Amino acid sequence: MADLGFRSVDLLALSPRGQWVHIKPHEVVADPDRVAATVSGQLAARGLRAAGMNVQARVKDLDERGVLAAQCRLAACLGLASITVQATFDRLIPSRAPADLIREGWLEREKERFGRLLAAAGEVTLSVETHSFSIMQYPEMALGLLDAWPALRVSLDPTHFVVWGLREPDFRPLYPRVDHLHLRDSGSSWAENQVPAGQGLVNGPEVLEHLLEQGFQGTITLEYVDSLGPGDPPFDVVPETAKLKAQVEEVLARWRGC
Fold first, then answer.
1. What is the arrangement of strands in the sheet containing 8-13, beginning at the earlier edge strand?
2. Number of alpha carbons in the 13 Å side-chain half-sphere of residue 76
3. Considering its fold, how many domains does the chain have in total?
């Protein structure tokens, strides 16, 4: 990361069985201050700092509110004012229409769940990721959750809309609540959830421009993943990350010069 010119990273604190874990939730719950000291030292040794943290509150055999409270303690120790959290995942959600999900109580259950999580978060802001396989992949349901809890913010990942057939104008109503932007290019299906920069349907610079027009001042994460599975992705993510980084920096430089 440092070799590419980055000075900050977005940390992952997900299930220990996940592929992309920087911080194990069980260790955070046991002693968030110790984990913070370890992580801070590892980052400092590489000339990096934490810019964000993507957490999973639901962990087997642990109380969800206790997990989130510990993650928020860790975030505060790392100097983070907000963290990215996930709505409930279900692989069947993309096959269901939003109206059906609402009738089945998905939106109300998530409203209740996030009420509990907000109470456990203390002073740390919760930013819900627009992730596939959750109600957040549907802009209208995401807005329903945000309307219920004005303190909630959005971690916007355009990929998780585009791969299901939506386009930038469809999720633009979320922009006033965006606190964190996740960027990579993607195609028109889940099998193409990341493609080389400029070869897909996510125009990252355009999304960023529109967010800046809405007053966006949050964190930007470039989220090309190098280990989706054997031979996946079929391209080197390092030069694509560098290319996207240059595009983002060009947009930011233009805005700073205004």
1. 8-13, 49-55, 82-85, 125-129, 153-156, 178-183, 219-222
2. 13
3. 1
